[in-house]
Amino acid sequence: MPKDIYHLRTQVAKALANPLRLKIIDQLDTEQEKCVCELVDALGCDQPSVSKHLAVLRSAGLVTSRQEGTKILYRLRAHCIKDFLRCIDRVIRQDFQEKAEEIGRLTASLNLGEK
User: What is the pLDDT of residue 3?
Assistant: First the structure.
């Protein structure tokens, strides 16, 4: 049975639902390739963990790889994933601002009652 677009989107979203995988995406871009050893150094994680998470990202279609000698080099398949993550960051900032404003209003109303 063919998968529908929502199932396919869920697969990509699940691949993004891990802090280390998001850090890996931040380290990669569409132009310059990086080997696992560079990612291990940048992230301070062990090589098996980084390799495992890269496999998940590759399976979801978010990264691509190629072998060069004994190294496997990785890069993002589409830069738009970083645009998507920036959109998520805007949502987080907006939500944080709204909550901070609400706390400010609540605090101000408490201070008025103390006079």
Answer: 82
